[in-house]
Amino acid sequence: MSRTTAQIQTADGACPASTFKPEGTGPWPAVILYMDGFGPRPALFDMAEKMAAHGYYVLLPDLFYRLAPYEPPSFAWFQDPEKRQLWFTKFLGTATQANMMRDTRAFLDFLSAQPEVKQPKVGTTGYCMGGGLSLAAAAFFPDRVVAAASYHGGRLVTDAPESPHLLAPRIKAKLYIAGAVEDPSFTDEHKQKLGEALKAAGVDHTLVTYEGARHGWVPADQPMHDPAAAERHWQSLFELWDSRLKG
Description:
alpha/beta; 8-stranded mixed beta sheet; 6 helices
């Protein structure tokens, strides 16, 4: 596999992105990896490489491009409450659902133009912040996104009109959603409301809690990384994508 970079023109500017593809010749099914709140970095590149090794053309966009250039924060840096709040307010404030879905249209157009990509079905996955974006992509682009996953996603159920759980009636994709334990951003009550919304909308979905796994368990550079839970994540993700993108 090899990482290459691209500039994707969006409605708001040029979004830097990394692409990863399997060895050999395509075309391959494409997937979009929606990053967590720390930005693109080696740990996410390693994850994208593993997805590519399984036979997928992977697009990893920098969702914070509106504030570029910037330096991804270290986890030690996040121990300072003031710095953490500044990062979340400034950077996550630009990653609104409206902005991200406008960007996703450009991402899908980019994938449509790649000769190595098998058309037109696409899969998505997201982590923490990206979990809700992965589900939103399935709702906003139901004719393209056929399999969407969310791992330790936060704010999947809120009082806002754009809450992901309210998008359930628009989703045609198969979903896999895995929550963490003791996660204030996605509580047991949130899980119940999301499950009820998906069931009422007739969405094919799996909604589980990984017992013992904390918010942020997948990326290897996070202090909450859990190797066993991360491996379970890989098995479930590939089963989901393979069922809809390789069948």
